[in-house]
Amino acid sequence: MFRNSNPVLKESTFDGYAYITGQPAAAKMTVTGTINKALILFAILVACAITGGFLTVTTPSLALPIIIVGALSGLVIAITLTFKQELAPTLAPVYAVAQGLAVGAISVFYEAMYRGIIIQAVAGTFGILGLMLVLYRTGALRATPIFVKTVVFATLGIACMYLVSFVMMMFGGKMPLLHDATPVGIGISVVICIVAALNFILDFDLIEKGSEAGAPKYMEWYAGFGLLVTLVWLYLELLRLISKINRR
User: What pLDDT digit, counting tens, does each position of 109-162 carry?
Assistant: First the structure.
């Protein structure tokens, strides 16, 4: 029986593929196919980020609607795909579009305040991605059950903190320390960046174990989507961290 430490991969996900889609079981997930899907999603994200940044510069009044719609759309799609992975070939590109527009608008705001911050955040994001891949391939970090539980619970805790912060902002308030450029505030951002980086290990595990188990083809899009989610999250947190450091 297939056993996997990643909570998003379940044996039932694989068994029901032919029944749900009517496609032959030969249509299996591969590492190469997943990389190709991830690259497609990333290309869509970058193109839409450039578009979102351009719209923000030329029509500043569009920035806030773009960010809100993009963020909420991304959240809805992420929740949907958690329960309906077979929809990933359709919804993952939509997510890339929505998040790309929002990321582009957000990046322009940060760049206006701190020149060169986009390049720093992009370099940091891909540097960390490369480091996590090396650590995973060498076996220094593996998605063991304890590792998965720790990262998942930490991620859920951070998500709850984001939600509380958002609600407070809606009522004109601000969560203490989260946005402050104090040593504690910077420390919180560092911890969040570390948790985001560790999520790459779960993504790599999903890709490796899914391909080994002969996961359905649509899981290539789902795995690529997961990788993109982590990439965007880490990039945005690095923007926040670098901006805090620059404010000191």
Answer: 999 999 999 999 999 999 999 999 999 999 999 999 999 999 999 999 998 888
Please state whether the predicted TM-score (pTM) of the whole model is above 0.85: yes
Nearest CA to 156 out of 192, 189, 187 is that of: 192
Measured between alpha carbons, how far is 52 from 45 in angstroms, rounded to an integer? 10
Distances (CA, A) of 233 to 13, 61, 113: 26, 25, 20
- Sequence-ordered list of residues with C-beta below 8 angstroms from that of 132, at least 6 positions apart, any chain: 141, 197, 198, 200, 201, 204
User: 96-109: buried (b, 16+ CB within 10 Å) or exposed (e) per residue?
Assistant: bbbbbbbbbbbbbb
Cβ contacts of 191 within 8 Å, gap of 6 or more = none
